[in-house]
């Protein structure tokens, strides 16, 4: 039986975070046997915000190792680096030509991220079109999306329909959102009204997957909370709410169970308990990561992403040929 295709990626704009793990990677691990999964490192996307080239190189390699360390099996999934498959950029160009300025101007991610920069690059504005190209190249059936990416999937669907209708051919499959049962949105430890982000200039705001235990505990101890000192899940206490979400997401315990367990404990003890459970989880990932992060695995890792690029390229090339043909480009031979 043909498996449905799922495509997803993470930008190497920093070392991956607890947010990336609980919101994406952990769910990918759960679905990897059931679907034909393509997991990529979104390096083209990451340069929509300025990156130091050496750091980007390092973070891209680290991301491959982190995918595997988190449990993504490179033998059953396609793992590749986005820039290794040039069709992503090429299809983005074609789609650009039928995307309206108005629809991109409405994207909330663009509005948020552009506010943080002095000079806003066209790439940041165009981010959703590149994302549409990523998805449409592989006839993806499903795309795991958090709330923040919903708008981008919607525009992908619009662009696919528009292209199919303009050229009167069913070239692109219309992708659906993939809703996972556990899609926790992890918030910054320093500002619980904002998403935990790896590019946060304040490292206390995020837990990196590679943070050592003592750093993790310290960051949780410093987590911004209110002065209620009662472990209770309420919208008025976003800091504690975030910590409860993290604890629940890892242990599988329900919110009432957690509230009961930590009744009378106060925030200090609860913060350490969350830190410990996170450190325990990341310890296993870090052990695997450290094993991979040694010269003897160098060739193995290169083979993984070379194989991934080859597999992805085979599919992407076929789709781009159909697109070029539809728009009226002539072939070289
Ligand atoms: N805080 C989070 N909580 C839950 N899920 C998260 N994801 C990211 N942060 C959280 C999920 O990870 C996948 C890819 O993320 P990404 O790194 O490519 O882009 P992003 O969402 O913009 O993440 P960052 O860390 O905030 O990146 P920067 O700092 O570069 O902007 C997605 O599935 C996302 O939902």
What's this entry about, in short?
The protein is 53% helix and 7% strand. The protein has 333 residues and is mostly helical.
Question: What does this molecule look like?
Answer:
By secondary structure, this protein is mainly α. It has 2 domains: 5-179 and 297-327, Rossmann fold; 203-292, Tyrosyl-Transfer RNA Synthetase, CATH 1.10.240.10. Helices cover 53% and strands 7% of the residues. The strands form 2 sheets. Strands 1-2-3 form a 3-stranded parallel sheet. It has a two-stranded parallel sheet with strand order 4-5. Helix 4 (87-96) packs parallel to helix 13, helix 7 packs across helix 8 (150-166) and helix 10 crosses helix 12 (266-292). The radius of gyration is 21 Å and the shape is globular. The mean pLDDT is 94. The protein binds adenosine-5'-tetraphosphate (AQP).
């Amino acid at each position: 039986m043909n498996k449905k295709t799922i495509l997803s990626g993470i930008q190497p704009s920093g070392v991956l975070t607890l947010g990336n793990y609980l919101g994406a990677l952990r769910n990918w691990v759960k679905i990897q046997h059931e679907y034909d999964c393509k997991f990529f490192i979104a390096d083209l996307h990451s340069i929509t915000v300025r990156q130091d080239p050496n750091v980007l190189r390092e973070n891209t390699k680290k991301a491959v190792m982190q995918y595997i360390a988190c449990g993504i099996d490179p033998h059953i999934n396609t793992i590749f680096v986005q820039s290794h498959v040039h069709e992503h950029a090429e299809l983005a160009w074609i789609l650009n030509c039928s995307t309206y300025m108005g629809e991109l101007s409405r994207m909330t991610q663009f509005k948020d991220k552009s506010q943080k920069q002095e000079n806003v690059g066209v790439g940041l504005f165009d981010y959703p079109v590149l994302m549409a190209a990523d998805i449409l190249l592989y006839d993806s059936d499903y795309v795991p999306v958090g709330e923040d990416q919903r708008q981008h999937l919607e525009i992908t669907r619009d662009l696919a329909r528009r292209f199919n209708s303009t050229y009167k051919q069913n070239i692109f499959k219309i992708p659906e959102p993939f809703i996972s049962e556990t899609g926790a949105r992890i918030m910054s430890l320093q500002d619980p009204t904002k998403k935990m982000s790896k590019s946060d200039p304040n490292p206390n705001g995020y837990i990196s997957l590679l943070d050592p235990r003592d750093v993790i505990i310290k960051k949780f101890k410093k987590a911004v909370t209110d002065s209620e000192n009662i472990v209770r899940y309420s919208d008025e206490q976003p800091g504690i709410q975030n910590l409860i979400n993290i604890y629940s997401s890892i242990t599988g315990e329900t919110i009432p169970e957690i509230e009961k367990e930590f009744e009378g404990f106060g925030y200090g003890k609860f913060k350490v308990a969350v830190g410990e459970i996170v450190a325990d989880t990341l310890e296993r990932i870090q052990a695997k990561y450290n094993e991979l992060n040694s010269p003897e695995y160098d060739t193995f890792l290169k083979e993984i992403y070379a194989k991934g690029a080859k597999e992805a390229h085979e599919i992407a090339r076929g789709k781009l040929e159909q697109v070029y043909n539809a728009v009226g480009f002539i072939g070289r031979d």
